[in-house]
Amino acid sequence: MNSSISLSIVTSLYRSSPYVDEFHRRATAAAQALTADYEIIFVNDGSPDDSLERAVAIQRKDPRVVVIDLSRNFGHHRALMTGLAYARGERIFVLDADLEEEPEWLKLFDEEWRQQTCDVVFGIQERRKGGLFERWSGEIFYRIFNFLSATPIPANAVIARLMSRRYVNALIQHQERELFLPGLWQVTGFRQIPVPVAKLSKGSTSYSLARKFALFVDAITSFSDKPLIIIFYVGAFICASSIIYILRLLYLKWVIDVPIMGWPSLIVSIWLLGGATIFFIGVLGIYLARMFREIKQRPSTIIREVYSASPERPLKNG
């Protein structure tokens, strides 16, 4: 078993080459302000630039650095979970490497930690970063997710958080292949304290609109069965509405003797029921696809190599 240390700092790398050296410098300074017993873990998530080479060069000079190179790009949240599973710290500080989240927040989180009895201190944006579309779409995401999910998540929370060993041990027990970390953080429980932070904006993001939409679908289908329940009620409403409309047509024809134009009502009914059927089948298909992926029990990530000053540390696949 690996001996524990006081603090682990965990981050993932994807197109992070411009930030790796400065992140290491600032994270090292933040850690050393608290303890001399720390490690910094970089998880290379199949980055297509030279992020890995830069991180390995740092590791060769700094024995406190560990670089985990994944065999391909598995996704931001999976990479972070791999780093958390590998961390040895009694406390673990996780954040993104692009410096939108500042390593200096570690001191802020530590101060809050010492004032509170808790297992997690996490950052929450006072004002969501980005332009009008990013702020507007983020607000819609949180509203829809919290409406549908039995486990609401704090709006505008950031990745950065300081966590206890027992919390991380509980977190990494989750075996989902389709990860949505903000949901897992809340579902894991324990006492979690928010701290207001101001997240910076670098002007670009690796999360395209398509990736954001995919994350939204994953988040909803990972933590809510309400869409399935809604399908039942919408189907029941359509059936009831159809029956009422049929009774109305019969009343108009047999009681009032009003001629009925069949073509418009027929076409509208076909389009309504056809569209609803396709939509509902699509929702069911998403849930079946998730079950298909989970049942196969494939590893969340695969580690190609670990660069560490402690070669006795075992490789861990997520």
Could you characterize the architecture of this molecule?
This protein is of the alpha/beta class and 318 residues long. It has 2 domains: 5-204 and 301-307, Spore Coat Polysaccharide Biosynthesis Protein SpsA, Chain A (Alpha-Beta Complex); 226-295. It contains 10 helices and 8 strands. The protein has helices at 20-32, 51-61, 76-86, 105-115, 132-148, 165-171, 181-188, 209-223, 226-254, 262-295; strands at residues 5-13, 38-44, 65-70, 89-94, 120-125, 157-164, 192-197, 303-307. Strands 7-5-6-4-1-2-3-8 form an 8-stranded mixed β-sheet, sandwiched between helices. Helix 9 (226-254) packs antiparallel against helix 10 (262-295). The model has no long low-confidence stretch (mean pLDDT 82).
CATH 4th-level superfamily of the largest domain: Spore Coat Polysaccharide Biosynthesis Protein SpsA, Chain A
Overall number of domains: 2
- The SSE string, one letter per element, is EHEHEHEHEHEHHEHHHE
* Rg for CA atoms: 25 Å
Report the sheet with the most strands, covering strand number, pairing sense and barrel closure: 8 strands, mixed
Name the quaternary structure: single chain
Low-confidence stretches: none
The percent range for strand residues is 15-25%
Q: Architecture of the largest domain, according to CATH?
A: Alpha-Beta Complex
> What count of helical segments does DSSP give?
10
Strand order of the largest sheet: 7-5-6-4-1-2-3-8
Mean pLDDT: 82
Distance between the termini: 17 Å
**Proportion in helices:** 40-55%
Q: Overall 3D geometry?
A: elongated
Count of distinct strands: 8
Category from helices, strands and their pairing:
alpha/beta
